[in-house]
Structure formats: C-alpha cells, structure tokens
Fold:
Amino acid sequence: MKRIKAVLEYDGSCYHGFQIQKNALSIQGTIESSIEKLIGHRVPIIAAGRTDAGVHALGQVIAFDTDSSIPVDKWQFALNSILPADIRVISSCEAESDFHPRFQALDKKYIYYIYRQQRGKVFYGPYAYCNLENLDIQAMQQACKQLLGRQNYKSFCASGSSVKNFERHIKECQLSQKDPFIKLEILADGFLYNMVRIIVGTLLEVGRSSIKPEYIKEIIQAQDRNQAGPTAPPQGLYLHSVNYGM
Amino acid sequence: MKRIKAVLEYDGSCYHGFQIQKNALSIQGTIESSIEKLIGHRVPIIAAGRTDAGVHALGQVIAFDTDSSIPVDKWQFALNSILPADIRVISSCEAESDFHPRFQALDKKYIYYIYRQQRGKVFYGPYAYCNLENLDIQAMQQACKQLLGRQNYKSFCASGSSVKNFERHIKECQLSQKDPFIKLEILADGFLYNMVRIIVGTLLEVGRSSIKPEYIKEIIQAQDRNQAGPTAPPQGLYLHSVNYGM
Structure:
C-alpha cells in the first residue's frame, strides 16, 4: 500500500465546495470518482483545506492510499486523463505512509482578489470580488499590520464552527494594488472557518472608513464575530499553497 | 418607434454562439428573451458580428427597434437587471432609424489570446488557447506583415461559406508577447467566416517553422482554404470593438 500525495489546481466555480455531499457536485467527489475509474474501487481522499463553494485552488494538496500498479509519478497523468478540465493535478509523488495533508501543514497561504473595474466583469465575476467603491488602500494596509502575530481570531471565525481553539499565527498579511486588482496575500499556520473572507470583509469596512485601522486590535480582543465585518464572497478566494517544510 | 444601439460584453463559454438556434442557448436568444421580459413582446436584434460558440465579446454592437416607454439611456440598466451575469450591456443610446450594426461598420477589431503556461490552465482554458509548443515569435510577427492590405482572403475563409466576395482590407495585424500570453490584434473592414481563427492557426504553423513567413503571400494567392493552417479553437477569440466612424 502506498500513500500518494498530489497537488491540485481547480476552478471552484461549478462545484459546491471541496467536501463530498449528497446530490451536489464536489471537488472531492469528482476526484474520488476519477480514482475509482482508474483502479476499479473507491478510496477516500484527504485534503489540506476544505474550500467552500466557489473558492478556487492554485495549490491544494490531497493524499490517498492505494495498492494500484500505476507508477507513483504517473498518477498526475492518469488522473488528468479522466478529471474534468477545471480540476488539474499539478504533481504527484509518494508520501510517507503517515503523511496527512491537513495536520502536517506548517502553514497555508490564501490569496483574495478584488476586481475594480466595470468593464470585464463578465470575465472576472467568478474569479474575483467585483467592487467599485472608493477605498482607502493605505488604511487597509495599516489594518493588515494589526492582523499579524499569534492571536485569538474568534472574531474572524464564522459562528457555528465546532472549533475550540481560536488561536492562529498569521505570519504574512499583505494588501497590494495593481490596477484593476487589489490582492490580499495571507499566510498562517492555520485558518478558522471563513477566516480569510471575514478578514477581507473587515478590511473593506476599513477601506470605506467605517472602521479605523487601529480598531482591528479591539475587534480581535472582543473575540466576538459580530464585531468584525461581513463575510466577503467566495469567488475572490484562492488556496494558494500549503507548506510542509520539505 | 426608436432604434436602440447597445454595446455588449459577454463570456461566450456557455453559449452555442451569438445566433439564435432551436434547442441551444444563444447570446441572441438570451437577449431577445430579456427584452421580451421587459416590454412584453419579442423584437429581433441585429449584431455587428455573429460570434461562434465559445467566442467572447468585449464590444459587440446590437440594434433593435422598440416603442417602449423605457428611456433610451435606461436600457443598459433595464437589460442588465434581467440578463445573466455573463452578458452585460456596457452602454445604450438611440441610433439613427436606419442604423445597421453590421452593414455600417467601418471596421472591426478582434483579439486572440494564446496562453503559454501549464499552471493556471484551469482558469484560462475557456478564455485563451493553451499552447506550450516552442514558437518562433519573430517569424510569426513577420508573417503578420504579409497579411496586411486589401487582398483576397479566400484561403482564410471556412469552406462552405456562402460569401462571394473574399476581398477584405486588413488594416492592423499585430502579434505581441507578454508572458504568459501571446496576443494577436487584428483590425479589418470585415472578416470572412472563421477568418481570424484560420489566420491564428496559420501563424502557429509559422511559429512551429512548418510554414515560412514569406509563404503567407503564396497562401493568399492560392485562394484555397487547404493551403492555410488549421482553424484555431474559439476560446481565445474576442470581438474587441466595432468602429462606425462616430
């Protein structure tokens, strides 16, 4: 039995998220069906991050066990020959038999894109959050600095989450503007449910001058979801990469 | 009765082309249904260019007649409130009562994008032709120069077309490279059926060194579709703009 590690890129537009669901198309379900077509039986896959409906991936990592005779380095091509065009395997290799894509991740990076132009919305709508408001970018950048460090991010976790420990270490949180896009890059040792989208929603409130950048500290200290901004839409979000320190 | 002129942007990925068809989703059918929802009866629309399945538009121009009480400048907002997100009206205004978007066009500009990277294919697949071959860009640029001028382009017209006059005036034909894209911009007083895609397919043969750039002149002179290269896929093609000299 071998454990295969694969890195994936996908356009999440047509999927109801990563996680397998009854009566809805999921990334996980699509990949498990493709593996089944290749080896004749179903095996469960585990992912580094369970992306929501409409969220994309540039470097999702999955693992699964198989005793198939398909050579380890050929899994990429074998799966790509069956997967739909909006899911691609970027690389595949054999992992340690105890490799776990989520538990062993040292940190993950997400990117969020905001599109700031009326024209082109038909093309960018599924791939960025289209927003034409006047935004104070410098204030948003100041707010990003407040979000760095090892802190309790309960205010930035969707209510109803079953998580008990809300402490996470945000190592990078950088907002940059390159017309017609605003790009947020955020690197942390882990993310709470909807954390990046709530951060973006809160940064937008700062950009609108509804929240002062200094107030971010107070929002964090409150440990109360109601103090943070709304959840930004999923289309702008990309799981960029997962780092295992190897 | 007023003639309304509207400029459209659309993502052609989900449509079987502009032209209305039985049992297939078309841009024309979708717009005519939207107008019908607004004014209660169906009116035919005319377009500057009947784009094929999978072809996109950044500046398609349509016209239709109506005696509706919707103010002329409000048609943009009215239609956008009903149209799906992948078709947007960029502007609307009243045109002369004899305005014809196709017959009165002085020239049209098309753009074709080629995407040259393995990564990101899941996102660019529907919006560019993904090609990773080694291509001689300079040779392709030389070939572009041969395509300029008023010439008989029968070799670059899909066979089976009912057109009798194959003379067209290509005023601009420019190929540029900005990694990871190659972009062809082509401006002419009119285009034959599949003309831009056959030009791209032929330029790719030049890029592969299968055809010498000088040979383009001979292909034109042959007036024979079989002398030109294959038809490049529709996904990379955009109707960029239509010029009426006003």
User: Anything to note?
Assistant: The first strand of chain B starts at residue 2 and ends at 10. Residues 113 and 183 of chain B are 5 Å apart (CA to CA). The interface with chain A takes residues 9-11, 56, 58, 85-88, 90, 118-123, 125, 127 of chain B (CB under 8 Å). The helical segments of chain B are 27-39, 75-80, 121-124, 137-146, 195-207, 215-222.
